[in-house]
Design brief:
single chain, mainly alpha, Methane Monooxygenase Hydroxylase, Chain G, domain 1
């Protein structure tokens, strides 16, 4: 079975457990991005209770994504797809799961900052919120790609471009925050944690783009 056949397989098995759970998985990944953005928004207005609740919901969604990943892999092991196509799908899910994994790491760093009652400079917090907001949008665009995989290649291409644009914008914001941290009067200890959180968000963005690229490659190979 070629990549073209994998695309056809998705078209004809829209109600299968594997197809349904693959799309459900990306939904849980989106929830982690949305909750991280909510947490960052709450942090910027110094609403620590709100931020903690979002962090808790994020970690629940990340665990649910992991559980779905295991379920899909179990279904794939039953042999409905040939070896090459099983591997392609497994790599796709693993890559998207890394988005949620990195956001879980970012949420842990946020919890450390909340516990230490660190006051992040307003401009840095706003840039972090800008970055988390764009990551949320990128993950939602990624979901649109997955939802339309095997249905509408033009929509897949449209949202792949959106992910690419957002990832480049996040890169720019990432380096702006790095430069601003260099001139910050914050103690070195919170700067280290903020930098770790920033790095985790950047890695989530990179994996979002890479997942979009994998979907794009599967579509192109099927033409």
């Amino acid at each position: 079975m070629s990549e073209k056949a994998l695309l056809k397989w998705f078209e004809t098995r829209r109600e299968s457990i594997i197809v349904r759970e693959t799309r459900e998985h990306i939904g849980r990944v989106v929830e982690t991005a949305t909750e991280f953005n909510n947490a960052m928004s709450c942090l910027c207005i110094d609403d620590k209770v709100c931020a903690r609740k979002s962090v808790e919901r994020l970690q629940i969604s990340e665990k649910e994504a992991d559980d779905i990943e295991v379920k899909v892999f179990e279904e794939l092991s039953r042999g409905e797809l040939p070896h090459k196509e099983r591997e392609d799908l497994m790599h796709l899910i693993k890559r998207s799961d890394l988005v949620a994994d990195w956001l879980k790491e970012a949420s842990r760093d946020m919890s450390i900052l909340l516990d230490a009652n660190v006051e992040i400079p307003r401009d840095i917090c706003e840039m972090l919120k800008e970055m988390s907001g764009k990551l949320d949008k990128a993950c939602k665009a990624l979901k649109q790609m997955m939802d339309n995989f095997g249905k509408n290649n033009e929509i897949v291409a449209k949202y792949e471009n959106e992910v690419d644009v957002l990832e480049h914008e996040m890169d720019d914001t990432y380096f702006k925050i790095k430069r601003r941290l260099m001139s910050s009067s914050l103690d070195a200890r919170p700067i280290i944690v903020i930098n770790d959180m920033l790095h985790a968000v950047e890695n989530a963005a990179d994996n979002c783009k890479n997942t979009a690229g994998m979907i794009h490659s599967l579509v192109v190979a099927s033409m």
